[in-house]
Description:
The protein is an alpha+beta fold.
Amino acid sequence: MPESTRPDLAGRVLALTRLAPFQVLPPAELSQLALAGREQVVLRRRVLVKAGERPDAMHVPLRGDLSMAGGEKNPDWNPARVAGLALLGERCVRADLVAPCGTVLLVLERDTFLAVLEEHGELCRHLLRALAWQLRTVQQASGPAFRITSQQTPDGTDLISRMLVLRKLLGPGGGGIAAVARLARVARELRLASGMEVPPAPRGADVLIITHGSLRLLPKQGTARMARAGEVVGLAEAVAGVPLPVQAVATVPTAALVISQAELAGAIEDDDLLCLELIRGFAAELSTEEIGREP
């Protein structure tokens, strides 16, 4: 299929700003992504990604619109965004992603996309924080987004045990092991009797990884919800640098590993691999929310 030879950088950047979370990134960083892609003209209707498959590129419409069954009744439904989250989160799409005849696309191959993130640390961190802000909305509506185990974790609180727990949360893709060891060393154990409240963090939210028991999360408005052993509270807020929007109270004797917001922020700033792992995790959670939505 034909590809344009004179890229319109401003048009590419504008197209990226129509996709959350890219709309909040600085124009200079969007330009880095825009220049890494190629333009493609679709001469006949084409299925870009088949249902049940993982995207191998991000497809951003420069002219025309993409379609994907499943979310037409939601005014915020954006097939290009849904597929882009699936790409970053290494998830399969639920329905075909289709480009009609005449569509002009900016195509950013997966390996190229990840290479740009690895080469530009500020872009990587800004994208992570943008994803964190979006995930906060999902968490406030449905509770903790991350589960590291299906049941309570082992009793050990030594360094190796803490690393095993954090590895499941922060490094599922194989990177960021140095940051996992660093955070395991500074993680502290919090024990609460039934009815005790988690002490508020002095700045942004701390990350709470519940190892035993459960917490009742009480928002200022809305319905209370439970977070049980194996679930994580406050990760998106800690990355975004904002307070936890709920009061957390132990319903039974409860234990949790706690990582301060400052320690997590320092690790993200120092370790690009950790930043990429968190991008994958946040995008996967957002992708699951979008792809799992029924029409």
